[in-house]
């Protein structure tokens, strides 16, 4: 509970992120040093001005004015150079930190299982990697300057003011706690708003992403007005919170300026009395006013940084949540790279529950798929076909039993080695921005153009590629939206073939093909994959009837296994599936 409260306050997570800045310690040290010198120069200037007024202007000593004035210009120039250098090194350190933190978050997310992706949400992960890190970067950039400058100017200004006139300094000393208390009160009241605004950015990103990716469905069902209302609600909620937050922050500046001007009035009033009584000189009063302005502006700068800090703390907590989430699927340390027998896939009494599910998605599944054989999996919707496919490349770990590849439990294989043996064609064909050749080479970066053409011919994609103006250099938009479903499926199959893996997983990847293309593709695949393990998930009986063995699933259980003819004779579930798709003449 104590740790939970600490995380809620945001302090520990900011410290954790700040520890990651160790590689940039030199830049941070240089920035702090230069900002320190800048503060010292600014604190020294009012003293020089006081001396010039008291000894030069009042006494009419022109050479003294030129000498002190020239020295003031030199000090100001040094301060300006230090300010530029401090800004440069602070920006460089915070920018490099943000760059590396993005890379760190991205690399960590790459290790997540599908469960962690589902738990976090794609939109939230995007926001955390972009917007949240930007918030932390901006605060760190300002913090390195303000957190050094503001205390030095505030404390140093008070010390210098006391050295000029201790009694008059009581005016400043009495105003500073009032301002600091007011700023602290504002941020205490506004803290919940800062913490909630990032969550509302997540919500807006989710609605926007769903709208853009689902625009065809939205228009087809004429739901544009509803989606506009959803976006307006999410946008309005974020806007209202931001307005409330900024309205609260806007009170700080007028209050600071009011306090500053009142303090100046009191300083001039009581300073005049002190001068009249001979207790201080005119130059000291001018310097005193300058120190008052420096102290007040230091508090103003601090309040500007504090306006950003709560939101950055919320962002830091969200980033740390990602970095501290331990991936469920990790490589075992005991077996780094075990020797494999001839590649095969075997399920031994496998059961699997999705996280939080009460009923198993798979129950007691056992079979073996050997090289050179085609194993087909068929069953109704929700029977667990794709779940079986996801267990082989270890997208999820089994709840009970074992999945073995080459005689070795997949949990004992390095994930990179396991997946290098697999060519997966997912249920939803996904292509990447680039060219057709780039997408096929995604399976094998070293594939030559001739090899790409041969693979495209096997995947029955050569004809439609040759019809394109640019052929294999034709552009593919994000997600392959400029291609049809069947074209995307054939390119996905070609991508898997380019890899030349030991194991092929076709997850309902022939559904968008016509019967003629489906038959030609399966015939070509027979020759191409004759030395590999081939597992095919399909809905159509015509796709699986020539397989060496067919696994029939029903509600996550194996209802039967055998060839097409064997299952027709002995398996009720398979006969029902066949009867629903083929006529009696075709069955006979």
Name its key features:
12 strands; Rossmann fold; 588 residues; disordered N terminus; alpha/beta; 6-stranded mixed β-sheet; ABC transporter transmembrane region fold; 3 domains; 22 helices; 4-stranded antiparallel β-sheet
Q: Could you explain how this protein is built, in words?
A:
- The strands form three sheets. Strands 6-9-10-3-11-12 form a six-stranded mixed β-sheet, with helices on both faces.
- The protein has 588 residues and is α/β, with parallel strands linked by helices.
- 34% of the residues are buried.
- A hairpin with a 2-residue loop joins β11 and β12.
- α3 runs parallel beside α6, α7 runs antiparallel to α9 and α20 packs across α21.
- The chain is 65% helix and 10% strand.
What's the overall average pLDDT, rounded? Answer: 82
Q: What is the CA-atom radius of gyration, in angstroms?
A: 35 Å
Overall form: elongated
The count of domains is: 3
The proportion of strand residues reads 5-15%
